Records
---
Amino acid sequence: MTAAPPLLQVQGLSVRYGSVLALDGLDLEVHAGELVALLGSNGAGKSTTLRAISRLVPASAGGLFWGGRPLLPLRTEQTVKLGISHCPEGRRVLARQTVAVNLELGAWLRHDRAGVNDDLERCYSLFPRLAERRRQLAGNLSGGEQQMLAIARSLMARPTLLLLDEPSLGLAPRLVEEVMGTLADLHRNGQTLLLVEQNAEAALAIADRGLVLEAGRVVLRGSAAELRQNSGLRASYLGG
Amino acid sequence: MPDGSLLVQMLIGALLGLSVYLPLAAGQLSLATPGFMTVGGYVAALLSTRVAALGGAEPLYPLPWLLLELVLAAVIALALALVVGLPVLRLRGIYLAIATIALNEILRVLLLNSSWTGGAVGIFAIPQPFGDPLGYLAALLLLLLLAGAACQVLAGHPLGRAMAAVRDDELAASCSGVDSFRVKLLAFGASAVLAALTGVLAAHFFNTWNARQGSFDASITTLAFVVFGGSRLWLGPVLGGLVLTALPELLRPVGDLRLVVFGAVILLGPLLFPQGVVTPALLQRLPLPAGWRRRLLP
Ligand SMILES: Nc1ncnc2c1ncn2[C@@H]1O[C@H](COP(=O)(O)OP(=O)(O)OP(=O)(O)O)[C@@H](O)[C@H]1O
Ligand SMILES: [Mg+2]
């Protein structure tokens, strides 16, 4: 592996919701420039991992470090300031605001107006459908367009690390391909991503590495190529 | 034809409507607007009647001291808002509503039982800074214009956008880097200050002040201003405060029926206009000059 310290380091992280142990001692590292896929079926603890990293849920044990600096004492907005942008499960766009206002919100912490305008244009060229609909209310977009808006909004923060929670959920196969293609482009341009997916095939097609979670524990980890060949994973997630 | 004193009360209603609107615009229900108004009123009543040096005995109460009351009331209301808001606004949910009901009750019990504030009867003979209702009209109108202008600027300002984001989806706002706690605290603080300023002018106008101003009834009435007028745009609660304050008086000719009509408006309003009367959709339909529409819509 590389000698540089990891961008994000998760050490023995556990998260409890009351009596439910949703995450049980997770170890995970993400290095700059990597695209890491976090796979697993319903209730495996994937979203919980992202929520813990962006400090939306408290950790019950373990450590979280950002370039060596502890993340656990921080609040969500402070993690955004550090360069972690979490695109949450279920899109969560502001339905009663326009596409443009949603994107502006993503740049809330930034004060470089010119840079923000550049990034707006970059988002519109990444997702041309959004450009055509910039004055429309986000609530009137299709599910796929809302997903694109959610991703674009997260990009507006100019994150060092982008956390994506099931961007393919509820999208038609062609749209899944389009979104994954965009993520691959971002990755090629140096963006670091931690991608949560149930669609293991689509995620492993673009990822460098992957982990498979089951009931809050990592049951498998390896390079994307290894995981694509793994018979157990093929049986349970890749449709044989 | 409404007389000057009814117009004054309508303006007070509009200001209280705005005070309820501000935290709602950040997704927070505060029922403490009448409580903060009561506090402001007591600051005015106590200073102007108990501190002889301020010139309460003069024919017209000096305006500089009225300004002093306004500043003091704002500071005290802000401090109280911090005491209530700091512990509860970190939480998501309706905790502010519960905490503000508690604040109202604590204030009421304290004020009713302290001889210093005149106990249950309150404070009488509050001196008049203006000779007739016209002076109050001008002062309240100025305050309403300032508050309305501030809300208007806020609607197009990133801070106003952040408030709307916290209201619509606090998690999404946090994930975008919005410090939702600070946004909610600011909105609640502004609400408290506006209510207290209104209270100062109201206490002088009514000439007498007591703890009943902050009753639970008053909380519900001020909330009705916003439910009726709408909480999406600041014009909504202003309209709600004006209309719902005037309605019971204008309905006086129909005698006892007026309470029935008033009740029906409060009941039917939300049924016919679930978002309140003033909505972005309404502004789209009204034949307004395009520039106005763009400015009024966030
Ligand atoms: N707020 C909550 N309260 C209680 N239990 C929760 C809560 N959120 C998640 N859980 C539980 O924690 C476990 C992990 O949930 P999580 O949302 O992380 O799963 P996931 O891997 O993202 O699943 P999915 O693919 O269905 O989104 C599940 O058993 C879930 O029921
Ligand atoms: Mg999930």
Note: Residues 33 and 191 of chain A are 6 Å apart (CA to CA).
---
Amino acid sequence: MSDATTLDPQAVTDADAATRSQTSVIDQRPALDVHLQTARSPLAHLFTARADANAGVVLEEKAFLGHLMLRGDPAQSGFAEAVEVALGLALPLTSSTLNLNDAGVSIQWLAPDEWLIIVPGEEAFAFEQALHEQLSGRYQVVNVSGGQTVVSLSGAQARQVLMKSTPTDVHPRAFPVGRGVPAVFAKATLILRHVSAKEGESEFELVIRRSFADYLGRWLLDASEEFGVCIKA
Amino acid sequence: MMHIFCPYCGELREEEEFHAKGQAHIERPIEPEACSDAEWGDYLFFRNNPRGIHHELWIHAVGCRKYFNITRHTVTYEILETYRMGEQPGITAETLAAEQLAQSAAASAASSTTQQTGDARP
Ligand SMILES: [Zn+2]
């Protein structure tokens, strides 16, 4: 058989070593000029700039970020180390933990074998490649950037908006900085993360599916109205 | 509002995040072709509906999205334990009955002691 050599496990291993990864990865982001002319974020039509000096709530869409879903077994030798090398961030092994750095890279525990990685949009392809380069064995990396968006919720009354919207306990005692969970939100679902707290004012990130974006965007504007809303765009 | 302990998230989470998926520990026959119609029908359609302890399959749908098991009391709605897939329940109708038997035996022993001391009282 002419193709016998390709079935030789040793040959596959060698090929693997030569190319580092046999997974084909494509850059899902179009060239920058095309991107700037044509791309519309899921909340572009709703979150138009609105100034309010006394706003209790500040909303901002963090559009066009790179979202990667990572799956794998953290008990597999080298898995956690490989992720840390690729991202420069430790793989969270504790439930509902969010690790993030100043370079705009974050990794959040979603399940014992699943994590959400968010990176600056223009770096998504490079991070995806780095993960494939470092990881081996059974794992999965999927770029889901086109399917979701991030809303930043901050301001003195940010927590009140959350309390109106979700049954999840968002008291700082139960929901400290560095915690992130999927949550029921206005009867829809999203991922809620407590990103920072400066001078007692918290910033939360809401990771929203594109198909829920219009509904949740309108809900957030309505729920924030009584506190005064500032929209950064 | 009820809190349910997810054995995969390792913490109590909101009831709304979970969905019940029916009776737990149902095993698909290894050789469906070798089943009688009665056996196959039993596997597909027939479920227990006990008054008391019930082992149920649940999913943490808005969360880790893992299936797990709950031992629940169908009269009081009390959740007695949650445990991972592949594990066996620690609490069953049998262990609960044995526990109740031991409790009533201890209670009757205690009441007979009270009677004896009661005689000495004025
Ligand atoms: Zn869970």
Note: Chain A has one domain: 40-232.
